[in-house]
């Protein structure tokens, strides 16, 4: 009997994973401010709320176990503008978190690995007489340019503004600041380790192998970090 029950549970769970994703036109999709054609939010999600303030473009794939939240808790009136916008043709890796209180904007064709954390809110600790978790947090919008790739387990902090076609190496922590187009950011805290200049090309130059082009620039001599 236990084997039969186990088989039935696995069968139902497998069916749900294949067929219970949120698709355009479904009742779940209509809860969002926008939900484009060909877009899928995989089953099972982890935590999703604030859908009326979340816009998702067309042909975007969002992995399972996702946390996609607008606002502190469900049921709040967050005003007339969306807090999270995900563009067309994006892929958000499983287990990732997008947590917005002010604004998180992902352009088109943004790809992330699994377990990426992006938030526009951070705890503060200025008042030493109050526990950090009880101090009112600070918000700073986040913008991620079209064509950007963010590696697995990376953290994007409030106030980050990534240009187009940037690369964030796996497990990096991207600190607040503006990063120009075609930058490679790596490390904890993250800094620019490679960038493209129209007259000089890639600085430091690419060494030609796929390994060197895919390591997030971590093996290269770093160039100056951005102003923050």
UniProtKB/TrEMBL annotation:
**Would the keyword Transferase turn up in this protein's UniProt record?**
yes
Tell me one GO molecular function of this protein.
O-acyltransferase activity
Q: Please give the Gene3D superfamilies that the UniProt record associates with this protein.
A: Hexapeptide repeat proteins
- Which residue intervals make up region (Disordered)? 204-228
Give UniProt keywords alphabetically: Transferase
One GO cellular component assignment for this chain's record is:
cytosol
Q: Which Pfam families match?
A: Hexapep
Sorted alphabetically, which InterPro entries does this protein's record hold?
A: Hexapep, Hexapeptide_acetyltransf, Trimer_LpxA-like_sf
Per the record, the similarity remark reads: Belongs to the transferase hexapeptide repeat family.
Q: What is this protein called?
A: Succinyltransferase-like protein
- Source organism of the structure: Murinocardiopsis flavida
Lineage, opening ranks: Bacteria, Bacillati, Actinomycetota, Actinomycetes, Streptosporangiales
